Fold each of these.
Amino acid sequence: MTRTAVARAPGRVNLVGEHTDYNDGVCLPIALPQDTVARVSLRAGDRISITSAQQASVWTGDLAGCGPGRVDGWVAYVAGVLWALDQEGYDVPPGLDVHVTGTVPLGAGLSSSASLEVAVAVGVLALTGRRLDESERRRLVQVCRRAETEVAGAPTGGLDQSAALLTEPGCALLLDFQDGSTATVPLGWTAAGLELVVIDTGVSHALTAGDYGARRRECEDAALALGLPSLRDADEDAVRRLADATLRRRAAHVVSENARVLSVVAALDRGSWTDVGELFTASHASLRDAFEVSCPELDLAVDTALAAGALGARMTGGGFGGSAIALLPADRVDAVRRAVDTAYADAGFRAPRHLDAPASAAARVVEVSG
Ligand code: ADP
Ligand code: MG
């Protein structure tokens, strides 16, 4: 029987802390129930085949053909992991069949890409008989981050990979990009009768990549003008004195957003759900008005959810499309979804997709056979 390992890894949604990762800041993701499952089998010889239930193309090659500049499209995320594992000194078998299938919506800001990378990495690890302990999980964050940055060509700060590998069910993960530390933050809201929902707008506005780069540069310029290594060390008074109005707004978002992450953690600890909701909504206002990365679809989802009884709502992810989240009483979920659907139809927007978002488990090995 062919030796086979099956592994799964979740998508994620960031509760708060947006555009803070590349500013040495903090953020607070949870793992989603939606995931990617990778089936990795040994095969004789030195050929590697990569297939996905979500894609028509089939890739065949060898390990040497998995590196930067050798693969593109969706295959780069999978081949990139094999390359990065090899680079980091893992024993990657030369002959492999890799098949993936996923339920994380692609390109919705819920990190299907990291869930794909991590599922493949954990699958290969299990196949070679290595144990997935805590320190291994942390090494895989870096492996998958290298795959996405160096092979798929999408610079990533490690938020998505950390969420897929380090989260615990029922908990968020507080990530600090300045010192690399993480902390598990229990979410008591389910017991309090609340639910978190995701509204996937289904849109992705064309200018995203350029705007993302522009925001990063503006943040660097603001830090430079303040004489700081990053905006993490900036305070509100100094930001108010910045001469350039655009840089002032961008920096004000980053500084206030980092503070909101810590306030959300404190409010979660107290069980102050109204405060959590208000902080989510304040984060949205800051991303919309100061950082200017929202869009009409995200604003409508947030405003409608709030009007229909959500305690708080905000865009999540980089912006210009993607998804919004809302925290609301469980018995308001249907009403909020109906209200958002109606508002979208009235505005002439494409119908959004609704997802449940209970804080779920990190990546794991499902089975190893043969
Ligand atoms: P997000 O991570 O927010 O979903 P990205 O643009 O970072 O958006 O990653 C989406 C890309 O990841 C897809 O376009 C595809 O190339 C790849 N991908 C994710 N899941 C799968 C899958 N199950 N099969 C094939 N490719 C996938
Ligand atoms: Mg991604």
Note: The longest helix spans residues 245-270.
Amino acid sequence: MFPCQEIPVFNFTFYNPVRLLFGAGQISSLSREVPKGAKVLMTYGGGSIKANGVYDQVHRSLIDSEVLEFGGIEANPLFETLMRAVEVVQRENIDFLLAVGGGSVLDGTKFISAAARFEGDPWTLLSRHMPVKDAVPYGTVLTLPATGSEMNSGAVVSRKMTREKLSFSSPLLFPKFSIVDPETTYSLPPRQVANGVVDAFVHVVEQYVTVPSKAPLQDRFSEAILRTLLEDGPRTLANPMDYDARSSFVWCATMALNGLIGCGVPQDWATHQIGHELTAFHGLDHGQTLAILLPNLLWVQRDSKREKLLQYAERVWDLREGSEAGRIEQAIISTRAFFEKMGCPTHLSDYSVGSEHFEEIVARLEGRGMIPMGEKKNLDAARVREVLAMAR
Ligand code: NZQ
Ligand code: ZN
């Protein structure tokens, strides 16, 4: 047991209207999910769906629908690219979007959906969090388990011109449906499997390793996802065609960020917030930034997060012996070792990235009013610098 002050669970509203179709062969259900008679714009990325057969499966299923296409949405989707899709939606009177790809295509499509019906400068949806009042309905076919974007209402968009990476969300931006077929992920390179496992793992940690609250079910959901990722992440890497391991990992990623485990509990999104800056300045993959930052953040915040770190050490890593400080340190070391074992290096130098933007990152976060960060708002500028310094 962990003697400590537990805070009461906060009031919450849980709303998740996404119809999720999970499993092998589910793309054939598309024809039933896309509204009859709709003029559809299918959005996708750099071409992986053409190489792995997903593109053909989608077209076979939508043989009776009018489908236009917009390809070329890049990883960390760019505002500049997405605005070209917005023009297509408006010019062609598109009434349904279908995102086929990873988190970037899904997020990009959320932005297209909102921007196409927005009056004013669409960048302000991100820069000033202007409210979304209307959105083009859309569905998704997910090909990369990581972000949870298939079952949430958030999106992250980058702007090339200013090297910014910003997020927004709206209840109007949940997909109408998402098709999640684990077999579509067999073609992922190991680097993207690693990114996906790390991203899902960190989503859970940021909703769980905070301060104790009277939410035992949320804690146990979180611990179940973490332990399952520890088993099925490495199994997926070792046996890419193992459907059981793959589908388990995919479902973990969806459940990690669909709102369920975060109901009524404190959250700490500092790792993500700092990580987005590392991508904005250096183009690192989202998962890589998290693998670099999370162990450092847990270390810098080890006193502040003491009780939950001890719980994490015991229930996720089976660490029950030794001093409290020793168990916490070992849990953080094990977390880093897991990311490394998945093939996701945890230092900036592993990616040939230096410290030249550290001060700019702190200044930006301060400028946006995001510092101090964390569930206790005690990750101040000095501690952000510490987290970054440890990342070298
Ligand atoms: O563009 P294509 O050719 O499709 O290739 C992609 C891309 O190069 C490739 N890929 C995707 N599915 C594949 C595949 N390659 C082979 N086989 C497949 N089945 O993988 C590469 C990376 O794809 P991307 O979509 O960028 O990865 P991910 O799903 O990790 O998404 C990352 C983006 O999502 C944001 C991140 O910040 C980043 O911009 N996030 C979105 C969140 C949300 N909406 O809730 C939360 C997350 O924390 C995250 O911030
Ligand atoms: Zn993430």
Note: The radius of gyration is 21 Å.
